[in-house]
Amino acid sequence: MAYSQTKMRELGRIVANANGKTMGAILDLYEKPFRAALHKPPRHASPMNVLMHTLGYFKKDLSAREKRHFLEVLEAYRHGRTPLSSAVSILRSWVMRFETEYLYGQTFFSPFPEELMALDDSGRGRA
After folding, report:
1. DSSP state letters, 25-94
2. Which structural domain, as residue segments, surrounds residue 19?
3. Both 102 and 60 in a single domain?
4. Cα–Cα distance measured from residue 123 to residue 68, given in angstroms and rounded to the nearest whole number
5. pTM, rounded to two decimals
6. Cα dihedral sign, 88-105-123-80
7. Domain tally for the chain?
8. Could you tell me if residue 98 is inside a domain?
């Protein structure tokens, strides 16, 4: 979704219409649009769409203050005042708090193994 909603829907149709096709046949159909989806890096606004979509999973469980705080962090990201990881961390905490199984496995929230994450890789490093 963060890369291309159009390609995401196309890939979903390929998987949904497997109709007894072999795994090899499905992978053959899937490969070209998958590569096309990842060909260009996501636009700055694309992760915001993912974040807003994810917020929808929690909208009935959150207080008005929690929603407002998240939207303020998202707005700060939009204007370049905070990193994307700030909003992602808030959502990740809600995924755990509300035990939203579907979202646990989404690589958007954990794109790298924890062992690869370090403060000095954040673009600013430590002084």
Report:
1. HHHHHHHHHHHHHHHSPPPTTHHHHHHHHHHTTTTTTS-HHHHHHHHHHHHHHHTTSS-HHHHHHHHHHH
2. 5-39
3. yes
4. 28
5. 0.62
6. negative
7. 2
8. yes
127 belongs to a structural domain: no
Asked whether 47 and 5 are in contact (CB, 8 A), the reply is: no
Q: Quick check: is 56 in a domain?
A: yes
Query: Please, are residues 51 and 94 in contact by the beta-carbon 8 Å criterion?
Result: no
79 in the same domain as 28: no
pLDDT tens digits, the chain, 127 residues: what are they?
556 677 778 888 888 877 778 888 888 888 888 888 777 776 667 788 889 999 999 989 999 999 999 999 999 998 889 888 899 999 999 999 999 988 988 888 777 777 766 555 455 554 5
> Rounded to an integer, what distance in angstroms lies between the CA atom of residue 113 and that of residue 40?
23
Instruction: Tell me, yes or no, whether 35 and 69 share the same domain.
Output: no
Neighbour tally for 74: CB within 10 Å: 20
